[in-house]
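Lab notebook, page 48
Experiment: co-folding of the full assembly
Goal: obtain a model of how the components sit together before planning crosslinking
Operator: M.T.
Materials (sequences as entered):
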Amino acid sequence: MILDVAAVFGLAGAGAVGLGLFGMLANPRPLQKVLAFNLMGSGAFLMFGAVARRAAAPGLGPDPVPHAMVITGLVVSFAATALIVGLLLRLHAVSGSTSLKPQPGPRRAARSTPASKTSERGDAA
Amino acid sequence: MIGLEGLLASFGAGGSALPALPVTLPLIGAALAFAVGGRAGAMLALVAHAATVLATGVLIVVVATADAPVSVALGGWHPPLGIALRADGFAAAVLGVAAAVLTAVAAQATGAFWPPARRARLRAARGRRRVSAAFWPLLLMLSAAMATLVLAADLFTLHVAIELLTFAAAPLLCLDGRADTLKATLRYVLFALLGSMLYVAGIVILYGFYGTLDLALLSVAVEGDWPTVAALGLMTAGLAAKTALAPLHLWLPPAHAGAPAVVSAVLSGLVAKGGFVVLVRIWFDMAPGVATEAFVALMGALGLTAVALGSLVALQQSSLKRMIAYSTVAQIGYLFVLFPLAFDPEAQKLTAGAALAGGALQFMTHASAKAALFLAAGVLVERAGADALARLRGAGRRAPLAALAMGLALLALAGAPPGGGWAAKALGAAAQQSFWSDALTAAGALTAGYLGAALVVLLQRCDDVGSPLLWRGAPALALAALASGLGLAPLAGLLPMAAGAAPTPDVAEALAALPPLAVGAALALIFGEAGEARPRPRARGALIARAVDALRGAARRVVAPALALDAGLARWSAASVVLLAMLAALLASLSPSFPSPAATIAALSALG
Amino acid sequence: MTAWFDVGLALMALGLAWRAIATRRAFDSTVAFVIYGLVLTIAWVRLGAYDVALTEAAVGSGLTGALLLGAAHRLERAPADEDRPSAPLRALLAVACAGVALGLGAVVLALPQVEPLQAVAAASAAEATGLLNPVNNVLMAFRAIDTVLEKMVLFAALVGVWSLAPDAAWGRRPGRRFPPAAEGPLTLFARVLPPVGVLIAAHLLWVGADAPGGAFQGATILAAMILLVRLAGLADAPPVSSRALRLLIVLGPAAFLGVGMAGVVLAGAPFAYPAAHAKAIILVVEFAMLVSVAATLALLVVGPPERAQAAP
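Observation: model returned without errors.
Model output:
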């Protein structure tokens, strides 16, 4: 077996997936969970790059289909990151913490109509 | 010059651009609604939704009358280079119920989510403007994502669609901006993304070995070798996390209980089941032969675990929306029992027969009944200003349509004819896997139990009746009526069932549905008033009352551990371990060398 | 020689990835992540994926880095969220994750040397669109629906981020206000670079038809320029209630969807282009997307409206 460029970066991608998975599961800080999610994604995409490189045609370069999918995937990951960062900053503004631990015990008297809630929302800005 | 005829022909069955419309129309509507904004934007959103419903209706009729699935190669590029949209009976069934749910949700949302008049200058109007500006575009994008999820025949397109579904759904959960709904949303998004990445890793492997992600092309090429098993294991675990299959449900109850009721309706009814749709595509359309007896048994066992855990926790909830949210956990479990029911042990593969038809019916029933329950809860909770059951005493008398909707949804979910749940069970029983279908019957009793317990409280006499909310429950009632009449719907043209296999409701069937309902009624009496600790004066029959109280106490002690188990599973670290363990179990069960459960039992009994 | 370069690069990426998840301070781990992104860019070049390399540098490392650095800065004083799994549990998770990585590694080593069917098919179909860049052909023609959905994902994220505004700030300008900076290098850059950035973006769009580049990569350059101008306090974003801004945001996706549906009538299938004008139509759609995506990306980094009072 030859350790060519595809294999080297494919293995690096596999490693990044493992590291990202560990970060998402074991790191207690939400912001670093987001970062770990990005690592996991980029690792999977790097494996895709290795796949594309394997399917290179003589004179044509690597398979372009995985490359296009990776670009799409990177954009989707960015959108996800932006949404999560927005949620985290808002949570921090509202509660002063970024803890994701749910409050213990059954919640009491939760309102459900947006109209009634929006009028009494705290202005955290 | 292209005439009207040419236009119609190209959109008709011949040109078959039809499958693209449920995807593109709502997306165009979302863009327009956002750009225009205000009341005009919301009106545009409704128009776009109406057009989508119309196109979906035509598509369903075309699919039902055609012999083969209606498909279109987008851009004229055929797979593997291009992407095909393919509408089969399962897709039509899911699209139909999704259109119904979204229509009911939109109808109810024209109340609280309608933008205020332009002149309104109050602070509250600002908040409503913010909420409605997000709600209508996101609802339409959610509709398009759901349509893509059932129509796209390409694994990567399915990935993008399921991400769109997640990102359209997530902001809706926390429109109120409270800390606990923000937390619930974050947990949902993070866990869903974890699932997505496992799914992506799986499709990378499949592309690496087969050079295509088209479902039809993969179905002829796919083999049960170890890289394929690894890919399918990763994808299945990822999708199970996304669809909140217990014990990976940590994000669902707080998210769905905390969101506005119309949002919970569409999230519980449709979005939570998105991952399941993809699983059906993967296992029934793409790799039915890779499934093993151990794998389907594992899926069924996970499903029954979800049913048991969700139902037992729902029985003990003291707030209405939390109870309905846990009922969603249970009903996602129901769907997974499809796998053992549809497995053909002789051919050693999953078969798209009556069991799959039953699964589709189960999907439609749960989607419509669950959305109906949340919409009804929204009406009931709105007036009371709280969703604690103790404060909802008698609320059902004020909103009789909502209470009626809850009752009908109960009957449909508990499996009374002619509801969809009953028809699904009848079709599943035809598969002759008696253990799994008996388990579903028993689960119906639990459903009747917790929903009945809520109804008992809602219909109690109370002094403060207030002004009635007569018509507010109409969308919920319409959906509940759909759920409880699905068994009569002429679905034989859509779903894969043999001619004449469609079950007919008769007296015997109605009588057969009675025992689980009776058990449910008993459970409702035992667990009713769960939120109440008020001692009642008992002048007469003290002995009987004491006996009943003792029985209640004992029953509650028996099911109490479910609450502790659920609280433990809701921790991120516990969910992490469960996810990895599930991945390992899936991989082991899919490997050809893994002994089948039947063989294991035979070997053990031989030892004994 | 080159093999060792690749191995070194891969090890460096893994080391940085480890640092990104193992460091306690969010700021440090974000910096490690940004450098990791740059290393990955070189890796993509080594894999012959120049379009991906551009995207990774611009989005994977650049914009994601900016977003995360900003968040790390604002959350620096947030109390630590110590729901940390116990040490034995972490060890268990580590072993399991290592198992996943090893399994994936085994898959990579087992990858077959497949026939380059897709690459050949993509190359032979390129004549139909007139574009020579194979990746752009896949994005704009063969898998156009993926690209449309991806743009809608960005759009949905923006709608979602805006919905996180406090009620009092709704309708106003997004993000914090940066006061005009004193004359210095920042303002100089903010005045000189944008025209250059616009040129580069247009160039990337134009050459993207035939060479690496394209609308998305151009859009990230434009977005960076917008952010730079804002950072220097030279201009502020328009209010989120501005209809012009909203039109700008949906222009690209709407144009792509419109052209896609027009394809039913003009070319016989949704998202098909009439063969004679394919390249021109694609370039027009790409231009619309360049503008919309640039605005959306910049606004995603800026965040929701949060100023309770209208700006003076």
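Interpretation: The radius of gyration of chain B is 24 Å.
Next step: discuss with group before ordering constructs.
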